[in-house]
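Operator note (shift B, R.M.): manual run for Anti-anti-sigma factor requested after the automated queue skipped it. Running by hand, logging everything below so the morning shift can see what happened. Input copied straight from the record, untouched. If output looks odd, do not overwrite the archive copy; leave it for review.
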Amino acid sequence: MGGIELYETDAAALAFETAPAIMWLFTGPEHRIRAANRLARASVGDRPGLIGTPVRAAVPEAAGQQVFELLDQVARTGEPQLGVERRVEVDITGDGDMVEGYFNYSVVRIVAPDGTWVLVAHCIDVTASVRQRHAAQAEVAEVRQRLAAERRVTLQLQRNLLPTGLPLLPDLGLGAAYVPAGEWHTAGGDWYDVVPMPGDRVGFVLGDVVGHGPTASGAMGQLRAVAAERLVRGGAVSEVLRALDTIARLSPDARGSTVCVAVFDRLTRVLEHGSRGHPRPLLLGADGVPRFLDGPIGPPLAYLDLDSPVAYTTLTQGETLVLYSDGVVEAPGRGFTESRDRLVDCVAHVAARNTATDPRDLPDRLCSALAAMVDNQTSRDDVTVLAATVLAGPAPRLELALPAAPEQLVVLHRELNAWLDALSAHRDDRMGIALCIVEAVTNSIEHGYRDHSGTVTVLAELDGIGGVEVTVADTGTWREPVERSPYRGRGMLMMRECSDHLSVDTGDTGTTVHMRRTIRRPPVPQPDFDPPHPLTAPHSFSVKTEVSGTTVRVFATGVLDSSNAGELRSALQEAARSGVGTCTILLADVDLLTSAALRVLYEQVTDLRATARDLRLITPPESPAAAAFTASGLDQLLPVYSTE
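Run finished. Output pasted below as returned.
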């Protein structure tokens, strides 16, 4: 015991020395080390001169680690101190290299009858167990990181394989939602599609591939492509199921997949449907009462040699068809019957709360509610829902007769936005349609009625197969521009870029522009991804100039078209005359950029280049301004930067 007499028996001294714990005895205000057993001495490297030395001098590297302060507190207050896994660094070898250790400890003050006291520190070295736990935690963290990375890749793959939107049809309201499985159950098996078909029919498909991850997503992509191809060609439900069955037999990853296929005749309102291992479709009546459709269900894909059984149901106005994956009715801890009852109750509840809702919006409400019903943090399967409501009246249409004057563009933007809002069109579709219509009307004003006044008519409506038909007409006489410029023709190029079909018919009685663009309604946003924000383009415009050092910045906001292109030109010319070295225009907050404004930018860049100066065009890659540069081809002629 280092020569210290304990005034106890030799057995007690031996027990102290060989105790399976670190034990220290300190006395006096300096906490001199009066005793230290073998594990205590080993914990500081068996350094000489420990006994009788104040602890601050014996173990100086403990300063700053709150060890000495702990002893001071117990000595002063007499209150015991306990701790778990306290981290302490000690120079065991004496060469200055600190070694980390973790200790469970207790420090108590014991007072003798004569009033003297000693501090007893009892410590258990738990360094090995703490390091094992840290290593296990690091391994778990690495596994979680790998799983998270795989999940992100799979979700991105899944999103790319699923439809980017649903076709906008005049007599059907459509909605869809997809929720991936919980964090530890990688997504990638559910899929759905809505396909306009020949003969005023539309096909619905919702399926589930066995398994998860990229492999399941790949099999899902195969099945979806085959189903879409058969439906586009007008195949009946049995033909689609037969084709899917063939693919499943050839592809081991698709074997055992389940699917529900339905074809709705929009003229007779007869629904043909068939399922292979998939839950029965649900039909929400116009009276708000849901029921499951009758009909046989065949085995999963690749397990049937005969044609798949099909059934027929006639739908009526206001009824809503709901297809769903088994993730909706196979929740952990609930039986199948209970989950089906929850599904029915949820649908009935949504119907009761939305009696005054536009029927076109009811499918979205249903899909959102059913997706929210499932806890995607604990769900072991993806959840997919597809809904379609039979509508009564025709879809909203845009029908305008505008005086051919630039100030009428304000009216055009207002009515155009209201119409696009009613359709709930996708952001990209809104921007493309707005560009086409505004460019066509601007051309009529500039070229058709240059020498006299007149009227421009605009008619836009859904065509019944998922597209928008637009006709812009005037009764003026086309006049070629007096001024020839290499910039000319960009407006027509933008119109062609933003439409699937464009035709221009000019004659003595006027000019008619006809355009068509496939248009889609966004599904309910997926978790883990930014929801699509609708693009609104109120007809407002502002431009602000700011000078900082040798740079002048021009901030443009709102809609830039022919009605305010002159203001934009004046602002840029004033900025150029300021004499500042660099001129920058920031277009991130521009909602719509038409060819008239693009021409101003092109001309100002050209003019400044002639004086050995630059106009820098700044806009994010996904902005409406960037889309306009790409559509017009000006991104090939002008340098466009994403940031300053």
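Quick read of the result: The longest strand covers residues 99-111. The chain has 15 helices and 28 strands.
Leaving this for review. - R.M.
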